[in-house]
Design brief:
Radius of gyration: 25 Å
Distance between the termini: 26 Å
Strand content: 25-35%
Shape: globular
Number of domains: 2
Largest sheet: 7 strands, parallel
Order of helices and strands: HHHHEHEEHHEEEEEHEEHHEEEEEEEHE
Helix content: 10-25%
Length: about 400
């Protein structure tokens, strides 16, 4: 499969004997490309003109196409096989059981996966430090984010009806499949699915999208978190702002040193590759809300490659916030004359593709020994100093990129 760049050059290049013509064609595509072309097609120490046509193989070496969608390779050993994610949630099996599914929402939809069943405590203890705590809102005085123990995301790692956790196991082919995290076309929860997929795979990962799919982002996080309110928040301390209990749309954003956002975040990432395969991420009409971009980033990013991913801000349709049914969100107001009128939620258009605004994990809810307290005034078992050291970000307002 040839890349689009190669296809665009074939008519110009095939059969040409002059390297100058080839070089000029490549100049128009960027200096770095020309530099690569010289290395492959010319001997820089002894420049010569070719006496034979440029081959497709040489062109493809210059402009590699998107990788073919590799065959999904799941772990072969399992104890129980069920059809879909919904069947997985109903299982009542012992801890340590390995379960294979044959699909996520439908059979062979790309979301088939292998899981290990374990208690919540064992699952939580195995999490890296930056995934142990999440934050959905600030305290009542807006002085800092309130942390909670990660309740399990229910997109890649699922909480079963009996309280056990199905932990997603890695694929043998080396790729993280977005379908295994619940990302599918024509769904309202695509933004949330990618939030969890990115957050759980920021280090030494290759995230793979299906070819040419289009994913529209909606504000489904408000409904999702409120539906889990009792599970997450329990009885809350006085300093918890219940009126804005879902104000942080991405519960991992602050810990990964990004700004508050509902978008997926690439923050404190290392050796991450995102293979788009021509897939598109786009905002639904009136759905930007508190976000600045389709993908936010922050903190320290060392080794990031994104290719084949199309980002569509849909900015012409972001003037006013809409609900999931496409209705404009409005508030009833009373004028001084007594007349009733409606005020619509206007949005400053900021539908960028990728942006970076670093933020800190400031926390003023710690006990006398420095342990972080959650919104229920319970000890999370994590020292605030330990979390800051783990993240390793000295300047909380600076985003650092290396090898991007």
């Amino acid at each position: 499969m040839l890349s689009n760049k190669v296809k665009a050059l074939i008519s110009e290049v095939i059969g040409l004997y002059s390297t100058s013509t080839l070089s000029q064609s490549i100049i128009n595509m960027g200096a770095e490309t020309l530099k690569e072309a010289k290395k492959l097609l010319l001997n820089e120490d002894e420049p010569i003109e070719r006496t034979e046509p440029i081959t497709l193989e040489e062109l493809e070496a210059l402009f590699p196409s998107e990788p073919e969608y590799p065959e999904l390779q799941l772990q072969s050993n399992f104890d129980v096989e069920v059809e879909l994610k919904s069947d997985l949630l109903s299982l009542n099996v012992e801890e340590g059981t390995i379960v294979k599914t044959r699909g996520y929402y439908s059979l062979n939809d790309g979301g088939q996966a292998v899981y290990e069943i374990m208690s919540y405590d064992n699952w939580w203890n195995q999490l890296p430090l930056d995934l142990k705590l999440v934050t959905y809102h600030n305290d009542r005085l807006n002085a800092g984010p309130i942390f909670y123990k990660n309740p399990a995301d229910n997109f890649g790692n699922h909480k079963l009806k009996n309280g056990m956790i199905a932990k997603l196991l890695p694929n043998l082919d080396g790729y993280v499949r977005v379908e295994q995290w619940g990302l599918f076309e024509n769904r309202y929860d695509n933004c949330r699915a990618l939030v969890h997929c990115f957050a759980n795979n920021l280090i030494n990962s290759k995230i793979l999208f299906p070819k040419n799919n289009v994913y529209t982002f909606y504000n489904s996080w408000i409904t999702e978190v409120r539906n889990r309110k009792e599970e997450i928040f329990f009885s809350t301390a006085w300093w918890v702002d219940l009126d804005n209990v879902c104000s942080n749309g991405n519960e991992y954003a602050i810990i990964h040193n990004s700004k508050t956002t509902q978008s997926p975040v690439i923050g404190n990432a290392r050796n991450l590759e995102i293979c788009g395969n021509g897939a598109t991420l786009r905002w639904g009409d009136g759905q930007v809300n508190s976000s600045f971009a389709l993908i936010e980033s922050g903190g320290f990013v060392d080794g990031l490659k994104i290719h084949g991913l199309i980002l569509d801000g849909n900015s012409r349709n972001q003037l006013y916030n809409m609900d999931l049914e496409g209705n404009y969100i409005r508030k009833e107001k009373t004028a001084s004359t007594g007349m009733i009128y409606y005020e619509y939620e206007k949005v400053t258009t900021r539908a960028h593709g990728i942006s970076y605004f670093s933020n800190g994990i400031q926390c003023n809810t710690v006990d006398a020994n420095g342990y972080i307290l959650d919104g229920n005034n319970k000890n999370t078992g994590i020292l605030f100093k330990e979390l800051k050291n783990y993240l390793g970000v000295e300047d909380l307002n600076k985003t650092t990129f290396n090898n991007v």
